[in-house]
Amino acid sequence: MGRLRYAALTSLDGYVADPAGHFDFAMPNEAVHRAANDIEREVGTAVYGRRMFEIMRYWAAQPEPGETSEAVREFAEIWHETDKLVVSRSLPQEEADLPRTTLLRELSPAAMVQLARDSAKDLSVGGPTLAAAVLRAGAVDDLHQFVFPVVVGGGLPWLPRDVPMKLELASATELEGGVVHLHYRTL
Q: What is the distance between the alpha carbons of residues 147 and 56, in angstroms, rounded to a whole number?
């Protein structure tokens, strides 16, 4: 039985993108990639909204050997081996024509929970907009936040502001460059 998880790279003040929509402040170094790989290795299905899928399509091209670090190549391999559900009413079908990728026009939080429970591996929700709906439904089991040592002062928050949650800290790990990986379980 899989769990439903949400992971994000954020600023210290809790944003995945700054006021201009940029997220280059959270470029993962080798240690962050290794930690993310450990999380993503346990995921059987990744669910993305349109914007997050458009960002993640970068990984559709496998890096050439020697072109990138071992952790980056491993992340690309994990991404290729993961089933992907793209939830979007506006994305054209041809833009989702990648191996192991299915375009859905809608997917309820209850359906996501059922997919996770019926799976031997975890289901991840990618992107704060899609995650907000699942968080509002109280359906997320685990939250992983990679906190980068920068304050951006506003932008796109990683968590919805109107959803109270009780959490239990499962682990806190300091990574290279002052990045901290926080893993919380919902209560």
A: 20
| Domain at 4-186, CATH class | alpha beta
Laid out side by side, the sheet with 167-174 consists of: 101-104, 83-87, 43-49, 122-126, 4-11, 142-148, 180-186, 167-174
pLDDT tens track for 144-169: 999 999 999 999 999 999 999 999 99
pTM: 0.94
Tokens of residue 61, six digits: 């091209």
Block residue for tokens 């506006």: 90
